[in-house]
Design a protein that fits this description.
By secondary structure, this protein is of the alpha+beta class. The protein has a domain at 126-177. It is built from nine helices and 19 strands. The strands form three sheets. Strands 1, 2, 9, 10, 11, 12, 18 and 19 form an eight-stranded mixed β-sheet that branches. Strand 18 (351-356) and strand 19 form a beta hairpin. Helix 1 runs parallel beside helix 5.
């Protein structure tokens, strides 16, 4: 949430509607979805269009969480390349995962086009920038695997990446033209709008505090004293997961992703930085990612402190990264600073759980939530409508809390500090 020193660049229009649609107390629907981000709203939209009655309950306002606070990079694929997926999941499930991973960005951009969503976007690709020979070899391996499957990708030489990014310090990289950038808050709000227009009831400021199953129906109780009954419940809270379902919060490590936005760049300066409008993520252990906005600002993000920020100094590492990449921006003002959460799992894959019949949970956006959760929500809706697990790209798995989870945050913070120091030596 915004603080006096944390103000996001993405702003909700003053004319944006509040969502206060709640089915009558004690009434029954087919599905209650807890969480109104990409995952929850995509599931709700597609479930409603498959004929299900849906209620979305969000603890805050739509777009207030990570879905409205991220960098807006729409990147296809998973953290793993096709050959790894085939090896670890077998030919049938592995191929299904490869096909799913290839489709995630299409899900977002097709929806924007087909539904005529009021979402600013550019689809000129995403660059994975390599700053070491090891990273360049990994990019070549990834390029070979995806090109063999017909993807619109290619390797970039040192001179090409310099021209396309205008940044210093890269040896080369990899361009995936399936990707692009959006205004993530606008996309979240538009998802909510078309979901509501499709018959979904959406209620903001309805924190769910209790779930119980009685006679085959789930009774979903909120902090406000309201109750909705449903045949199925989907927990789509991701990095904001709490103790509602015992053990679920302990399956993920929520990280803070901090971001800064410059003042609008002059036309001359803007012409030298990402002139074709791609998004970029680099290959450092603690990576930074960046893009330009429609009004000519440069937005750059990366991992921040594990606890809540206390001052503008908590974004100083991003300002240093900005100047390292673009020395000409040393005197450009930073006008916006903000942060959101990212849910990471130990195996860097999303997890789908169904600990009881009709109780489903999804956790682990892995920093690619825009496309990944939009596409996964559509598949989840298919599962809710049919009960056929073939609809799900990832297998259902039991809830396995991370051992010594309370100490994991401390370990991650120490690892981030160590990796940041190693990255500094690789300048």
């Amino acid at each position: 949430m915004p603080t006096p020193f944390s103000v996001p660049i993405w702003q909700k229009p003053q004319t944006a509607s509040a969502f206060q649609s709640l089915v009558p107390d004690g009434a029954s629907v087919d599905v209650v979805i807890v969480g109104g981000g990409f995952m929850g709203l995509s599931t709700a939209l597609h479930a409603a269009r498959l004929g299900l009655g849906v209620q979305v309950l969000d603890a805050g306002e739509i777009g207030q969480g990570a879905s409205g606070l991220n960098g807006g990079q729409v990147i296809p694929g998973l953290k793993y390349d096709p050959e790894w997926l085939l090896e670890h999941f077998g030919p049938e499930r592995g191929q299904a995962l490869v096909d799913f991973a290839a489709s995630t960005a299409d899900t977002v951009f097709d929806l924007i086009r087909d539904e005529k969503l009021a979402v600013p976007f550019t689809r000129n690709g995403w660059i994975q920038a390599a700053h070491t020979e090891t990273a360049l070899k990994a990019a070549a391996k990834r390029d070979r695997q995806w090109r063999a499957r017909g993807a619109d990708v290619r390797l970039l030489s040192g001179s090409e990446i310099a021209d396309m990014t205008g940044a210093k310090g890269y040896l080369g990289g990899w361009l995936d033209r399936r990707a692009g950038i959006i205004d993530p808050l606008a996309y979240t709000l538009e998802l909510a709008r078309i979901a509501a227009a499709s018959g979904v009831s959406i209620a903001e400021r309805q924190k769910v505090v209790k779930l119980r199953n009685e006679a085959g129906l789930w009774r979903v109780s909120t902090e406000n004293g309201d109750e909705v009954r449903a045949k199925a419940v989907v927990l789509a809270t991701n990095a904001y997961t709490d103790g509602l379902l015992p053990g679920l919060a302990e399956t993920i490590v929520p990280l803070h992703s901090f971001q800064v936005a410059t003042a609008p760049l002059s036309s001359n300066l803007a012409a030298t930085i990402l002139p074709e409008g791609q998004a970029v993520s680099d290959s450092r252990r603690i990576l930074v990612y960046y893009r330009k906005t429609a009004d000519g600002r440069l937005v750059l993000g990366g991992r921040g402190r594990m606890t809540m920020p206390r001052s503008e100094a908590d974004w100083a590492h991003l300002q240093r990264a900005l100047v390292r990449l673009y020395p000409a921006l040393a005197d450009i003002a930073i006008e916006k600073r903000w942060f959101g959460r990212v849910a990471m799992t130990p195996d860097h894959l999303p997890h789908i759980h169904e600990p009881e019949t009709g109780l489903l949970a999804v956790a682990g956006c892995q920093g690619r939530g825009v496309g990944l959760m939009s596409a996964l929500g559509k598949r989840m809706a298919g599962y809710l409508a049919t009960g056929d697990a073939v609809q799900l790209p990832f297998p259902l798995s039991p809830i396995r809390p991370i051992p010594f989870h309370a100490f994991r945050q401390v370990g991650v913070a120490a690892t981030i500090a160590w990796y940041r120091m190693l990255d500094a030596f690789e300048r």
